Amino acid sequence: MSDSFSPPSRAHHIAIIGAGVVGLTTALHLLERGHGVTLLSEHLPGDRSIKYTSPWAGAHHVSFAREGSLHEQLDRETFEWMWAMREREGEEKCGLMKITETEFFEAGPPPGLSFLECMPDYRVLPPSSLPPGITFGVSFSTLTIDTPHYLPYLLTRGTSLGLHVQRVALQHVREALARVPAAEAVVVCAGIGARFLGGVEDRTVYPTRGQTVTLWAPWVKSGCARNEEGKWDLGSYVIPRKSGEVIIGGSRDVDDWDPTPRPALTESIISRALALCPELAPSSARTAGRTPTPADLQILTSSCGLRPSRKDGVRIEADALDVGDGRQVLLVHNYGHGGWGYQSSWGSAVRAGRLVEQGLGLAKVKEGKAKL
To answer: Using 50, 70 and 90 to split pLDDT, how confident is the model at 8?
Structure first.
């Protein structure tokens, strides 16, 4: 899939702050547009830190975005990019796996169903096939993202196109310009770090804590979720990965900074997921009508991450950074994606890239802010 707007008249050098999925995708998009890019981040793919959210994600592409919203546009564009990427690169290379996803709902069709209705192989499940307590269900084809594989893939692809990487913990946006003097623009993809980064310090950014359990169950090749009444993005979910791991969840604790998995929640996640999908247990534990128990599961680890939420939703807009002597440098924000960073990453990158090119096409950065 190619970008829909014309190539830039000349290349520029861009500094990007943050190496989560949004930062890496934005860097790759700008590189493919012909620009030079330097990525600055305290954490890089392969790291495991509570301050680095992307490695902890499930992740899959299942969107309940409101029809006509920016969220819906970003998610839809990203799905198209990822679907094409999987076909072009192959699942083994990029870590994207095509699956059949089944979504169960306790209280009828959810808001945002219009997005799922456009997914490949979408169908409404017959009432006779629904489990107890479920009043509505759908299935469709989508993608899961093997995050420990996908993030390094993005970084490797970027470096092959000339991406420069600096591992550094920035305290202020201006430090990016000191470290990359050639930069003509800075893109902030700092995730939860946007709350603390000097020059941004967005206090509307807050964590939404999520906890998951990783299982070894390579025989599971489809995903499913049970959505609780009135809470379409909660409940239980099963996300298989290309590697053979399966992520089960979940939880959503607003403004909770606790970095440690809670044993009681781990037990709850396991029991709920097993009730939803008994196939998580090996076939030997399901013979002769036997009901599998948590002891039958091959549990690898329990973990948690802090989704980088924002009160007013994702921020993708252009601004100006004062650098002294009356000079300004283009500053583009691309953060606040909450729990949908992966499934909106390419749509967000394209919009941030468009703001970069529009801003650098002017003699100077205009006063005020431009949004897409």
So the answer is: low
